[in-house]
Amino acid sequence: MKYKATNRGFTLIELLITLSVAGIMLTIAAPSYRAFVQDSQLIAQSNSFHSAMMLTKSEAVKRNNTATICSSTNGTACNGGTVWSNGWLVFADANGDGAVDAGEQIVQVSAALSGGNALNSNNGARVTFSASGFTNNFSTFSLCDDRGAAKSRRLILNRQGRLQTETGGGTC
Questions:
Q1: Segments of the chain with pLDDT less than 50
Q2: Cα atoms in the Cβ-side hemisphere of radius 13 Å centred on 158
């Protein structure tokens, strides 16, 4: 009995067609993937800031005293600016002055935002929560990437301490 040898593999034409289809698919998918990654990064950073705000509120209620979240560049003191992109810190603010004083416990320190994203506030460098969980002012934060205001995320904090997130309309 003779066995006939069969060739296994791809022909050159099959390989070229497969590579052409893969190339077309990649040119279609790559921009969508980049937008997906940017959207995911904005959502993660927005959630991180939202969590820090709610941590500040819960610390104030738990301690039955004021607690503050402020923008910080070094993780040990508030910097006094409206740019929060360089990080923030949450601390128990026993005297309610909005500054980290001796004996006041720092609860959380957040690092700078990645990806060149910007987080800015419309009215100040800190938010102080009272023991009841209320804030002293109405605040709006804008989280933006290189796509501008249309794809930004706005975080709106009302005086009752509720933080609402909206897509678009931020001031970048």
A1: none
A2: 4
